[in-house]
Automatic annotation (TrEMBL):
One of its GO terms (biological process) is diterpenoid biosynthetic process. Residues 345-428 form the Squalene cyclase C-terminal domain. The lineage of its organism: Bacteria, Pseudomonadati, Myxococcota, Myxococcia, Myxococcales. One of its GO terms (molecular function) is terpene synthase activity. This is Squalene cyclase C-terminal domain-containing protein. Pfam families: SQHop_cyclase_C. InterPro entries: SQ_cyclase_C (IPR032696), Terpene_synthase-like (IPR050148), Terpenoid_cyclase/PrenylTrfase (IPR008930).
């Protein structure tokens, strides 16, 4: 074994052992930080304000340019936060440029018939609420482009109004967009609201105003401090868009090991076993969610079931029935857009259990694009993630014959530098997803196997170069804005690199 492989194994061991610790590590969020500055700022807000203004792009907007529809929420929230902080140097000019961006780009929401599936989480609630707040301040912004979004939001509000609201349920994650009175019933055991710093900040604001001496205020403040620590920025008030996520980190980290063929690697077993055992203990008869205090969901549940079944842990397959709907798998009850990758993980789980996956498999094949890859997932903005998860499911479900055309499409879309990415440059996590998608075909006979090996060699060289250079965490997962679960992405990259390093002799053929 090479010294590079030894080093990668040691680094990967540390990352696997850390999965789920301290609630997870998540990239900082512009939207949620802006909401904290509006409603529950730290004693000295200036460092957070400076951070917020530093995230503004040259075009006046905030948020990654790779997903235009995910930019309006962080931009409008930032404008409102900076107007509240109008005495901060440069804040008025930044807010003015943000408003110009919103006016220029509002037409992106002018869909005629229906909204796409891959819109940001709760945007139908959050963006209309922000527009209402802007109107209350006398800000002149276009309204007509958001007609369909408002209609969807009204439907969602109607559903929420008929529900018995409990802590840790999906509507509470967007409480800041529809809540009014700070009911203690929405506070969960973490002392936060719906795993959402934005919702928690508004709840704290409302509760302080109504009951300044309420006992629970200190715990809620500590939740926001913990969320801020999860960003690793060291700036009070800078928070992620979702936290805590311990039982999201664990299965996705282990999934990266599974799809790269490393889940059974002997040098990793002593750190993998405790994580599998933790998932086995956490899995309830109704499923598993991103944390012990948040609602169960089909994506986390199916992924966990697949991993446990693969590892030989006893698991009850009936838990999957809760999430099956008309030939596909849902993530949450009452959702209005289907998820491609949740269905892929459902197929993976069924295949691992030896159960029939014909219907959801047919759905996946029907959703393949004319160019051979899968696009439009609701949880990740990159087609590389969607394609890697579907290809992994197809391989496990006995549909390996369908993989070659997609592998050829991925190879055709590889950049000259050896990486892949949906933005203007290759990204590490997306390159890793491509490696995971094609890794199983490296020994395929004939031209396909040779082409895959060439592509993987180029990817290995790019990942080595990337590892030697400074780089920022990537934000490609879809929440209220785009974000990055840092440990998950890092494990995908490390497993891709290690698998390629261990197979260096094969890839050189």
């Amino acid at each position: 074994m090479s010294s590079t492989a030894d080093r990668l194994i040691e680094t990967l061991r540390a990352e696997i052992a850390a999965l789920g610790q301290q609630g997870g590590v998540v990239t900082p969020s512009v939207y949620d930080t802006a909401q904290v500055l509006r409603f529950a700022p730290p004693p000295n807000p200036q460092p957070a304000i400076d951070w917020l203004m530093a995230q503004q792009h040259a075009d006046g907007g905030w948020g990654p340019e790779v997903m235009p529809l995910a930019r309006h929420v962080p931009t409008l929230a930032s404008v409102l936060a900076l107007l509240v902080s109008s005495d901060a140097p440069g804040s008025h000019d930044a807010a003015t440029r943000g408003l110009d961006f919103l006016r220029r780009t509002a037409e992106l929401w002018s869909f005629e018939q229906s909204l796409p599936d891959d819109i940001p989480v709760a945007v139908e609630l959050v963006l209309p609420r922000l527009l209402e707040d802007a109107a209350a301040l006398g800000l002149d912004l276009p309204q007509q482009p958001f007609r369909l979004l408002r209609t969807l939001g009204e439907r969602r509000r109607g559903l929420i109004a008929r529900m018995k609201i409990r802590a840790g349920t999906t509507p509470v994650h967007g409480w800041e967009a529809w809540g009014s009175q700070a009911d203690p019933a929405v506070i969960d055991a973490t002392q936060g609201v719906g795993n959402s710093p934005a919702a928690t900040a508004l709840w704290l604001n409302r509760r302080r105003a109504a009951t300044p001496d309420a006992q629970e205020l200190r715990g809620v403040e500590e939740f926001l401090a913990g969320a801020s620590a999860a960003t690793r920025t060291g700036i009070p008030g800078v928070v992620p868009t979702v936290w805590p996520i311990p039982t999201f980190e664990r299965p996705w980290g282990l999934l990266a090991l599974l799809s790269s063929g490393l889940l059974s690697h002997p040098a990793l077993q002593d750190v993998i076993r405790p994580q599998l055992e933790a998932l086995h203990r956490a899995l309830k008869p109704e499923g598993l969610g991103m944390s012990d205090n948040f609602d169960v969901d089909g994506d986390t549940t199916t992924t966990t079931v697949a991993l446990l079944a693969n590892a030989g842990h006893p698991v009850e397959g009936r838990v999957l029935e809760r999430y099956q709907r008309e030939g596909l798998f849902i993530t949450y009850s009452h959702e209005m857009q289907p998820s491609l990758t949740t269905t892929a993980h459902g197929v993976l789980a069924l295949a691992m259990l030896g159960q029939d996956a014909t219907q959801p498999l047919r759905f996946l094949l029907e959703k393949r694009g004319h160019n051979g890859v899968w696009v439009g997932d609701k949880w990740h903005c990159s087609w590389l993630y969607a394609t890697s998860q579907v290809m992994g499911a197809l391989a496990q479900a006995g549909a390996a014959a369908e993989l070659r055309a997609s592998a050829e499409a991925m190879i055709a879309l590889q950049r000259e530098d050896g990486g892949w990415g949906v933005g203007t440059a290759s990204s590490a996590s997306e390159t890793a997803f491509a490696v995971h998608a094609m890794y199983g075909l490296r020994s395929a006979p004939g031209a396909c196997g040779a082409a895959v090996r060439r592509a993987l060699r180029k990817a290995a060289a790019w990942l080595t170069t990337w590892d030697a250079a400074p780089h920022a965490a990537e934000t490609l997962w879809i929440g209220k804005e785009l974000y990055g679960p840092v440990r998950v992405d890092r494990v995908f990259v490390l497993t891709a690199r290690l698998a390629l390093e261990l197979d260096r002799d094969l890839l050189s053929r």
